[in-house]
Amino acid sequence: MAIQLEKVVETFYENLEKGKITGKRCTKCGAVEFPPVYACNSCGCWDMEWVEISGNAKLHSIVMPAPLSNKPEYKAMGKFAYGEVELEEGSRLNAVVRGINKKKRKEILEAGKLPVPVRAAIYQRDGFKTVVFDLVED
Amino acid sequence: MNQTKVHPYQRSVSIIGVGCTPFMYTVDKEETNGLTEGELFGYAALKAMEDAGVNPQDVDFYFHGEASPLNGSNYLTPNIHVTNWFGMKGKASIHHSEACCTGYYAVEEAVNAVASGKYDCVLSGCVEFGDSLAVPNHPYRREKMTMDKFLQTTAWLYDRAYTRSLMAGQELIYDDAAEWYKRTRGLTDEQMDDTLNWMCINNRRNASKNPLAIERKTYEEYAKEAGFDNVMDYMRSPYNPKMGDFLRASGLELKCDGAAAVVVCATELVDRYMGNRSHKPIEVLGIGCAACEATTPHFEVRATEEAVRQVYEVTGVRPEEIDIFYANDFIVTSHLVAAEIAGYLPYGEGWKYICEGRTAYDGDKPINTNGGRTSFGHAHAASGLADLYEAVHQMRGEAGEGQVKKLPKTAMLRGYGGAQNICTYIIRTKD
Fold first, then answer.
1. Residues A73 and A120 in one domain
2. ipTM exceeding cut-off 0.95 for this assembly
3. Is A85 a domain residue?
4. Which residues span the domain enclosing A105?
5. Whole-model pTM?
6. Does some domain include residue A3?
7. How far is residue B176's CA from residue B186's CA, in Å, rounded to a whole number?
8. Tens digits of per-residue pLDDT, B317-360?
9. Which chain A residues are within 8 Å of B171, Cβ to Cβ?
10. Distance CA B250, CA B375 (A)
11. Which residues of A touch B174 (CB under 8 A)?
12. Same domain for A82 and A131?
């Protein structure tokens, strides 16, 4: 397939407005790029197709927000943490995970529960929608 | 993650001269308020040329690094703005910017230019006003850069399309490495906190011996003044508040102003360039580079692993041959994480070396003998070359009160920054 000049970013955000969380899947090796980009970072192939991600994921690490790593506009998310999220499709990224405070983190770590299941959600920011994750409770 | 095969240089390249300004809050003092980019860069460049024993006309080309020229200096082509200051008018140059890693890529650029055979002798310098902003339409006045103004522009380090929107990559810079180290090595919260504090104490002890460092008062002195008998009680107190999930105020860079420079030449031409200079040249054995954008989990760890792999593979040097180690530690955790990934400190044991003071200048595994970013200061682009300046002086036995016990022959330096570039190199004194 020829390399296309394509508005990938705009399409990603427009899909969020339609309630769909999307990435790009490599037609050669099957790896999924999330967020979506032109070429596969696993095999280098640039023949990629749009794919809707399931939203199922795992959280591998937990860092709590603190004075340097928080912003007033994040308050609307309620309790949350940052961490390494692995999508069911294989992509790994740094993401926000809602539903975790210090007490919850302690509970997860002391029970040796990492990685814990999380689920992707569409979150309204000021002027656009983005993707966060929610802790899936037992 | 993708890997790169690095090949040996087409010809050997050596460091023959280094220069560095004091790191300063220029606008805070009458004697430094009003200094300009050309004056700082020019001073460091000429000091490096003097140290090398070369005349500006001997230098074929120069590289110029500045992390934030548009915001800090109102410059679009900052290499040109300083070009008349150090006797090289008419000679070509390139500006580059890799944020806090700029001073490390300054070495990569210069060495490649000589190793390729195109140039025989190259200058590479970096300058930054990290603590002040140019007053628009005035020839030399500057104003203090507040933390708010600083954070406005550091936000631009991160990708606009996804990273800023997803809200995590830019926030994880402060604590991700500490979380990773604590979890993978099985430390308690208290052990991790003490390790971070000891890195700051050791850095400051090192800086207390360095006349170019911006902060030379030890934490022991601060503790005593505040009525503490034990420095660690002070470090755990509200005098040193938590700014991150793990990171305390002492573990953050001291952003400031400064410049540094290096002169390199083809090793086969050292005698021609150095003339009657008595110090030995220091060969650049190899450089490894990698980058992980901030949405990549554990970006600093993963990119450091790849860059270190490259530099060991291309040089054939083993970790046990490294005598002294430098790491860009604008978040102090970096210096532990980088040293352990490089094998300079043993896996899972590095934190103990730090807490026992073994990584201070007078220990057996010295790290950041100039005081690192938390005490020497962080003039963002220039800091990497300031590390090299210190390493070279240590390797020549010219580090004064801060000289390490055993004269180092081989050094590793690991740069980091710009959300996030990694550049790691190994240098060795020529016999």
1. yes
2. yes
3. yes
4. 56-135
5. 0.97
6. no
7. 15
8. 999 999 999 999 999 999 999 999 999 999 999 999 999 999 99
9. 63, 65, 69-70, 82
10. 9
11. 66, 68-69
12. yes
